[in-house]
Design a protein that fits this description.
Layout lengths: L1 E6 L8 H9 L3 E6 L3 H10 L6 E5 L3 H13 L2 E6 L3 H14 L3 H18 L4 E4 L2 H7 L8 E4 L18 E7 L5 H21 L2 E7 L5 H10 L6 E7 L5 H6 L2 E4 L8 H8 L4 E4 L2 H4 L9 E3 L2 H13 L1 H18 L2 H19 L1
Parallel strand pairs: 1-2, 1-3, 3-4, 4-5, 5-6, 7-8, 7-10, 8-9, 10-11, 11-12
């Protein structure tokens, strides 16, 4: 069986969340990039007739064109969503309009409307977690079939030592394409400033990730006075993040703009105690007090961070439970099983 995966070109290579487990399962997988556009057209014209299934990343105008073409030639189409594309585009449009970037604002509005149109007509959807599935149900006008296909990380769980020295090494990783995520990192910096001043504890924070709003983080750090006992490094996009995960004692995060952050899965793989804000999406992949800790507000963050630093047994328990959860739910083997079962159902109904 031939499965085509159509995705934009990006450094994160998110198409591999589907291609790698499908290849492992023995499918003939074709990865087709949606740019440049003439190559996409060539693939649709010369190759699409041999596809049994096409999985599209995203619901933006180019995906709408591809969807129409594939429907005409009888290829079964599945949309894969890592978040709510209508909400995400609206959030980006708001920031562009506020900053008077009207061309980008218009593009984001078009993306939002395209997503609404596609979600109203899609027949098959892959989503990354149950909470996202619940949210999207209100946007679906047809009789779409939804399947929860979690993301995964490559590799087995990595052994972790849980002793902490005189300096606590803290890590956060995010995508600075969205201003909301940059605001979340600024919030984390503010909380760490408060923490180190109250506890007189040296902390080293590393911030990984790139995007147009990374400059807001750098500007903020240059404008405020950081305590000497808080060292912050923001190297941007890093190809090999493993040394940073291995060197961290605690992983922290704040965002209300995510479905399933893959950085959570990476933190689980490396056995890192995870401290993140409480929201529905995160509570579906982190069991509070078991495989991580979810704070509700500033005071919760302060109390939980102090507990994590003071209690080695707590760090070890959370880290070990996170690794067990990673292997059971977020490994490539787990993804392979869910994907093959979903495709069997979809193709059986299509025949």
């Amino acid at each position: 069986m031939t499965v085509a995966i159509l995705s934009s070109r990006e450094r994160r290579e998110r198409y591999r969340f589907l291609s790698d487990p499908l290849i492992n399962a023995g499918y003939d997988v074709k990865v087709v990039f949606t740019s440049p556009f003439f190559k996409l057209l060539w693939a649709l014209w010369r190759q699409a007739g041999g596809w049994d299934v096409a999985i599209l990343f995203g619901t933006y105008p180019k995906s709408l064109f591809v969807y129409g073409w594939l429907r005409v030639i009888g290829v079964t189409v599945i949309f894969r969503l890592g978040g709510d594309p209508v909400r995400d585009s609206a959030a980006v449009a708001f920031e562009y309009k506020k900053n008077r970037k009207y061309i980008k604002w218009l593009r984001a509005i078009v993306n939002s409307k395209s997503s609404e149109f596609v979600l109203g007509r899609a027949k098959n959807l892959f989503v990354v977690n149950e909470k996202l599935l619940d949210r999207l149900l209100g946007r679906l006008k047809g009789h779409a079939r939804l399947f929860v296909i979690p993301q995964f990380c490559e590799g087995s769980a990595v052994p972790k030592m849980y002793a902490i020295g005189s300096v606590v090494n803290v890590l956060t990783v995010t995508n600075f394409r969205y201003m909301e995520k940059a605001k979340g990192v600024i919030w984390l910096i503010q909380q760490l400033v408060r923490f180190v001043q109250q506890e007189n504890q040296r902390v080293n924070l590393k911030i990984l990730g790139d995007g147009e709003h990374r400059k807001d983080i750098l500007n903020y750090m240059s404008e405020v006075g950081l305590p000497d006992i808080l060292d912050i490094q923001a190297p941007g996009f890093v190809e090999d993040t493993s040394p940073y995960y291995k060197g961290a004692d605690i992983f922290i995060y704040r965002s209300f703009h995510d479905g399933t952050p893959n950085v959570f899965l990476e933190a689980k793989r490396y056995g890192l105690p995870l401290l993140a804000n409480h929201c529905e999406e995160f509570s579906s992949i982190v069991e509070n007090g078991v495989s991580g800790m979810l704070y509700a507000d500033e005071e919760g963050f302060q109390v939980m961070l102090a507990r994590l630093i003071a209690d080695e047994n707590l760090r070890r328990t959370l880290g070990h439970n996170a690794q067990l959860e990673y292997e059971e739910r977020f490994s490539i083997i787990a993804a392979e099983g869910k994907l093959t079962r979903a495709l069997d159902i979809i193709l059986k109904d299509a025949t």
